[in-house]
């Protein structure tokens, strides 16, 4: 049953919780086994509930793999728990309120993904504006020869970009688009001091003044369906939405309607409300670019994530300062 | 320049307004004809005549001092010979490979192009193609549209941009706009040019082969000339290496396309983002099957704003010429 080396039993125990549907990118088993004694309910024939109860007294730290949900019910089975290590960019799947109440520290993925997600967001924006994937399809289908010139795309330089959520990812997106000659404005829970971009207190205000919205914020009760009918109307017929945050930030049904009716200029989407399901209407559209929640998918992000996760855990077990503890408000 | 008596000009304006010869209409003229209307010149439209071109020119173009050309109506020594009064060649494109620059230089004929107005758009497209290839964006879009996400689940990893060394081939207005953008992603920028640019803070390589040895990606931004034709050959591509990416927003013929296809098919380079090809609109069939290439129908660098600005620049150059004022975008001999 136990494939770990003999000495592993002297490693600190680490509870690993992972949904079977989480992509392999987020679970680096052998790297973890080199430092920790893994307690993984999926490796046991025992039902999860009783596995957790049995191991509970010794579980001080838990690794949440990818977007595996960590509910208050799960947490209630782990009375000794002191640390939850998140391994994805967002943590809307973790009951943060319960963690705060219990004094459980949560560590984030820190900077591990920020640059790669930002690069992907910029790539999606250029693709939508300049119809790159659509143009590629046009060439591959032989249409360039038979049908002639493909229509012009839209200019990027000089566009007004509205960043929704100026956290680590949003800041990296802003930095890149400045180099393309774009002007940057943002909305965030609070205005950020020392930031050279115009602040808007609501996403409606931001949309009115933007040609494109890049969604980089986390998903919470407040931000759920933040991009709604009103925001899309404010953004306008030429407006573009790029979402590398969470599908739930957007009222997806409304977005599809707006796109189908030509009431919005286009969309670059990496996340959806019900992954891996993508609204079928989008498949036929030229002004939409679709990605399978892949914005973090580089070997470099994977390595950075591993180092951060293992670094946080080692610090925890050595009583040293954690590398990326979240500020739970 | 001969000066016209102003009275004569006022009495019979159309007769005095100088002609600009157009042998075949450039795409921009067809699309935006009214942008080319000016009080300072009128177009002499050779293609509207039933006369064959040669005859038209000898009959009607003897006193023509300016010509608006395009890829479809190249300025060859033969054509120049038929235009004894020619002093200015204007093209609405960034590219100038359809103009015999040596002959123009020899005869003191000025040339203007529109490189500046397309630089930002070309650079945006070049970087977009690079991101697309490295992060597999169009490939991912195909994956999702074919319904593979629910079936297959996991999507293959791309490659990070920021730690790449990107070699820019030709650090002109387009190349330098590309460099500025890549710096914001954290890339290391290197370049090759005919001569080093004193203002450029990037390492200079005197030949493209050495640039390729030290680069993870090459972005082709230079003009097509006799020297640059097939400059990106097999040797350069092998030097770039199996993970190497080529992006071309310049001219297809700068790359030995046959060799590039072989290198891509056999995995000798990692991928390519191409907006231009040697024989447009024909694209080598093997490329249509590859997942690690992004193909664009010579459109990536064009935007409506860019086109408008090009029209305005053409007209501004012509008007300046006929008013004896400095040209706005003359080609400068480097």
From TrEMBL, chain A:
**What's the protein here called?**
Glyoxylate/hydroxypyruvate reductase HPR3-like
Boundaries of every D-isomer specific 2-hydroxyacid dehydrogenase NAD-binding domain copy: 122-294
The protein's matches in InterPro entries, at most eight in alphabetical order, are given as: D-isomer_2-hydroxyacid_DH (IPR050223), D-isomer_2_OHA_DH_cat_dom (IPR006139), D-isomer_DH_NAD-bd (IPR006140), NAD(P)-bd_dom_sf (IPR036291)
Species of origin = Hibiscus sabdariffa
Q: Oxidoreductase among the record's keywords?
A: yes
Q: Does the keyword Oxidoreductase apply?
A: yes
Query: What positions does the domain D-isomer specific 2-hydroxyacid dehydrogenase catalytic occupy?
Result: 52-325
**Keyword list, A-Z:** Oxidoreductase
Q: Which family does it belong to?
A: Belongs to the D-isomer specific 2-hydroxyacid dehydrogenase family.
From TrEMBL, chain B:
Sorted UniProt keywords = Oxidoreductase
* UniProt xrefs under InterPro entries: D-isomer_2-hydroxyacid_DH, D-isomer_2_OHA_DH_cat_dom, D-isomer_DH_NAD-bd, NAD(P)-bd_dom_sf
* CDD domains, alphabetized: HPPR
Q: Which residues form the D-isomer specific 2-hydroxyacid dehydrogenase catalytic domain?
A: 57-329
* D-isomer specific 2-hydroxyacid dehydrogenase NAD-binding domain ranges (all copies): 127-300
Protein family according to the UniProt entry: Belongs to the D-isomer specific 2-hydroxyacid dehydrogenase family.
Query: What protein does this entry describe?
Result: Glyoxylate/hydroxypyruvate reductase HPR3-like
